[in-house]
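Retry 2 of 3 after timeout on previous attempt. Resubmitting C-alpha cells to design endpoint.
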C-alpha cells in the first residue's frame, strides 16, 4: 500500500515541518501533499518563504523538524544523483546556474553525469532544444541568449533526464508575454504527461489559468491551501484577483441591488 501511495503523491510534507535557516524559523507547521501531475502555485508576499519552501523540497536546506517525502522516501535519504534525476529545479537568475560553453552542452550536461551513450545524449538534447525553440542557438554561449531564452534553456536543462517533478521559482519573471506564454505552454504539455509542477509566482493570471491549487504563505504558515477559485473569491493574501473575478463581483453587486430595489417597490 505504501508504494501505491507514493505513486499518487509526488511530495508529502509531514509532522508539522519547520523550515529554518540556522535558528531562524521561516515556515512552521507545514503539512500537506502534492499529487503526481498536479500544478501547484506557491504565492505570498516577498520574504514569506516561497523560495525557502522550494529549497527544502530540493533538499538544499535541512529541516529543523518534520519530514519531506519525495516519492515516498525522505528527501534527506535520497542520494543527490537519484534525487535530481527525478526532480528538477529552476531558481531565480538561472543564468547563474549555467556552467557550460554552449547551449547544447548546457542541456547535455546532466546526462553526462549518468554515463549515457553519446548518440542518446545528442538525440535527446536536440529534441529538447527543438521543443523549447532553441535549436538554432545550439552552438551559442548560453550568455548570448535573451532573457526569455535563458529561462527556457534553464527549464530544458532540468528535463533531459525526464525529471517528473519540477520546482520553478518565478520562471516567467522579466519575460515578454510571448516567451512567457511559450514557456507556460511547454510546462502545461509536460504536466499533461504526468509531470508535477510546483511554481512560485506573483502573476495571478498564471495562477488562474494554470494552477490546480494555490498554497499561500503568510505569517510563517500556510494561510490557504486549495482551489484558485476560492482563493480569488475570498481575496486571500491581499492578491488582486484576475479581471473576470472582479466582473463576477460587479455583477453580483448589481444583482443584489436590483433585488433590493424590487423588494422596496413591492
Ligand atoms: P520569498 O521567496 O517568499 O520572497 P524567501 O524564502 O526567499 O522568501 O525568504 C524568506 C525569509 O528567509 C526572508 O526573511 C529571507 O530574508 C530569509 N532568508 C532567505 N535566504 C536566507 C539564507 N540563506 N539565510 C538566512 N535567511 C535567509
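Retry 2 succeeded. Sequence:
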Amino acid at each position: 500500500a505504501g508504494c501505491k501511495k507514493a505513486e499518487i503523491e509526488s511530495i508529502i510534507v509531514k509532522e508539522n515541518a519547520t523550515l529554518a535557516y540556522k535558528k531562524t524559523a521561516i515556515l512552521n507547521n507545514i503539512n500537506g501533499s502534492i499529487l503526481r501531475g498536479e500544478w501547484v502555485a506557491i504565492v505570498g508576499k516577498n520574504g514569506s518563504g516561497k523560495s525557502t519552501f522550494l529549497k527544502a523540497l530540493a533538499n538544499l536546506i535541512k529541516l529543523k523538524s518534520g519530514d519531506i517525502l519525495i516519492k515516498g522516501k525522505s528527501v534527506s535519504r535520497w542520494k543527490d544523483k537519484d534525487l535530481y534525476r527525478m526532480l528538477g529545479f529552476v531558481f531565480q537568475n538561472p543564468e547563474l546556474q549555467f556552467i557550460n560553453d554552449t547551449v547544447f552542452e548546457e542541456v547535455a550536461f546532466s546526462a553526462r553525469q549518468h554515463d549515457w551513450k553519446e548518440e542518446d545524449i545528442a538525440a535527446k538534447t536536440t529534441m529538447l532544444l527543438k521543443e523549447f525553440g532553441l535549436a538554432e542557438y545550439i552552438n551559442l554561449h548560453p550568455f548570448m541568449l535573451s532573457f526569455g531564452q535563458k529561462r527556457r534553456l534553464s527549464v530544458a536543462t532540468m528535463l533531459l533526464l525526464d525529471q517528473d517533478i519540477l520546482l520553478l521559482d518565478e520562471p516567467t519573471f522579466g519575460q515578454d508575454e510571448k516567451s512567457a506564454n511559450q514557456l507556460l505552454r511547454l510546462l502545461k504539455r509536460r504536466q499533461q504527461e504526468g509531470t508535477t509542477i510546483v511554481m512560485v509566482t506573483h502573476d495571478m493570471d498564471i495562477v488562474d489559468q494554470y494552477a490546480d491549487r494555490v498554497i499561500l504563505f503568510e505569517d510563517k504558515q500556510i494561510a490557504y491551501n486549495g482551489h484558485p477559485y476560492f482563493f480569488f473569491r475570498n481575496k486571500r493574501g491581499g492578491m488582486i484577483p484576475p479581471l473576470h473575478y472582479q466582473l463576477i463581483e460587479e455583477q453580483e453587486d448589481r444583482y443584489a441591488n436590483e433585488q433590493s430595489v424590487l423588494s422596496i417597490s413591492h
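Attempt log closed. The beta strands are 9-21, 24-35, 39-43, 63-70, 73-74, 87-90, 165-169, 196-200, 213-218, 221-226.
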